[in-house]
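batch_manifest entry 22 of 60
target: Isoprenyl transferase
source organism: Allokutzneria albata
requested by: lab member K.T.
priority: normal
notes from requester: please return tokens only, no post-processing; we will run our own comparison against the previous entry in this batch. if the run fails, retry once and flag.
--- input ---
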Amino acid sequence: MTNHDNGTAGKAARRPERTVVPVDDDRSLPVPEHVAVILDGNRRWAEIHDVPVVDAYRLGATRVRELMVACDDARIPFVTVWALSKDNLRRGAASVRVIAEAVTAELVAMAETRRWRIRVLGSVADLPADAARTLREVVRTTEDCAGAVLNVAVAYSGRSDIAAAAAALLTGAQPAGLDVAEVEHRLVRGLSTAGQPDIDLLIRTAGEQRLSDFMLWQAAHAELYFTETLWPDFENKHFELALRWYGQRHRRYGE
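--- output ---
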């Protein structure tokens, strides 16, 4: 496992630290309010285990439910997972369908529990029509759930997210003389995660150490945690290690 300090270009408002007591320790450590995970390594896992790629994605999808249960236990109210990037759409229709079907099947099962509020971020219209319809229905049926929020990013691009927010800002009626801070405030309201806190802890599995166009605005002050573990192998023990690492960090918010 490797981890690196994240750079920050500006200052973010400090939020009150929340604490959790680890199971095997009596010390109270800060716990993130918003965790994001880049679900990387499914195809590599399939190659290593000599199984169809769809099996890896199905197992990976069940790991999302396990992650949500662990976040409930840690009292983490916002979770974002990146299941499919906009660039992944270039892999071809058959490949995209495999991922979409695995993700939608698990989300339908999760929605039936009425345990979490599920939101879908990204260009859903670019997915197979049946998958897009199913995802919209999942969002509709869980919108009144009182549990943690699960953002599922599919066909998602951080640049596109910011561009869409900027376009909304430009097309709306704006008072003259807006200062930079007010422009930023209005821009944030146009992001796909509007109304949610920024990401505190961003985890990427499978060893890659870059954001790859994921949540570029929202992750500006996130602690970045990289692990060699492939996503289908990512279990509660790996998540607990990430939380413990986060809890021992001293967050400066650009100061």
